[in-house]
Amino acid sequence: MDKKVIEDKLNAALTLDNVYVMTEDNSHFQVIAVGEIFATLSRVKKQQAVYGPLADLIANNSIHALSIKTYTPTEWQRERKLLGL
User: Fold this and answer.
1) Which single residue of 17, 22, 42, 74 has CA 20 to 30 Å from 80?
2) Can you give the pLDDT at residue 83?
């Protein structure tokens, strides 16, 4: 599975400032999604917002495991500083 496919699906479905996809192998992925869309959503709704566009890839086992982190742009700026990025 190409990381670009995941990035494209998320960008097409959600209004995101940034999306980062990392992989441990071809089926285990970590997604960091940054957008103002997450400002008013509960933690569960944030996860559902990211899972939704990827449901077909999860169903056909192209994505076996998915770790999701969501941030507003302000939260991401703070997190990037903490991570030294």
Assistant:
1) 42
2) 76
Cα distance between residue 21 and residue 41, in whole Å: 21
Domain parsing of the chain, residue ranges: 3-83
Alpha carbon distance, N-terminus to C-terminus of the chain:
26
Report the candidate in 41, 62, 53, 58 with the shortest Cα–Cα distance to residue 70. Answer: 41
Model confidence at 36: pLDDT above 90: yes
Token pair, residue 62, equals 């192209």
Question: Average pLDDT of 44-65?
Answer: 96
Q: Domain 3-83 falls in which CATH fold? A: GMP Synthetase; Chain A, domain 3 (3.30.300)
pLDDT at 82 over 90: no
